[in-house]
Each structure stands twice: as structure tokens, then as C-alpha cells.
Amino acid sequence: MVKLNNFSKKIHKAKKRVGRGIGSGLGKTSGRGAKGQKSRSGVSIKSYEGGQMPLYRRLPKRGFNSLYKREKNVAINLDKISKLIEAKKLDSSKSIDLRKFLLKAKKPSKLKVKVLGSGDIKIKISILADKFSETAKSKIEKAGGSVEIIK
Questions:
Q1: What is the reported pTM?
Q2: Which fold has domain 72-149?
Q3: pLDDT in tens, 26-39
């Protein structure tokens, strides 16, 4: 028969009773040394790694969208288009590609052009653009012109 002597070993370790006198070994400063930020309660120097580069700075950044790579939207009203035709900067006899026109005017290369319906147009024209508002579309078609969407 095997005799079990495991009862002599302590299974449950008693918790530290800090600040209970000199004899306990954890009296006075309660094992925290003397003075300073680390001796105070409720204070921890989070993410400080003793001069080593912190984890949040070692990891690569993610999820940033550059403003320079983003497509830029440009809105042009019908009254502006009619003024450009009157100033002979746009030719109404041919189909007008607004994106190419804006690229000549040194606007950003990645741009989307939307034609808005503010103002009136009385000239029959065909316009190429990325988007058209409903009012702009109806006004151009009412004047006898046509609308083409660039894809």
C-alpha cells in the first residue's frame, strides 16, 4: 500500500498582506521602494518600455487613404458651360469632353466631372462627362442637345 504524504505541502498560497508592519517584510513602503511615480497607487507608465521602441511605434500603420491618390470630383454648372461657349473657349459644333477640357486647364488628372443644372443653356450641344444631375440632363435635352456618360 502506497502512503500519500501530499498533505504536508501547501496547496493554497496566502496572499501578500502589504503595509502591516516591519516584521512582515512588506511594511512601511509596501515593497514599492521610496517615493516617485511608481510608488504611487493608480499610476502606471503605459506603453513605456524603458527606452526600447514601443510596440505601437514598431508596428506598421494601416488604413490610411492618401488625399493625393483619391479621385477628385469637379462640378460644372450649365451657366458656366454656356459662358465658355460664348467666350469661344469651347466649340459647340463638336461634342464637348469636359474632362479633356479641364486637363488642358491643368486640373488634377484623376478627376470626375459632374454637370449640374444651375443656369440655362440655349445652344444645341453634346456633352461628355462622368455624371449629370437630372435637371442638367433635362435642360440639355430640352435645348436639343445630347448627353453622353464616360465609363
A1: 0.53
A2: Ribosomal Protein L15; Chain: K; domain 2 (3.100.10)
A3: 999 999 999 988 88
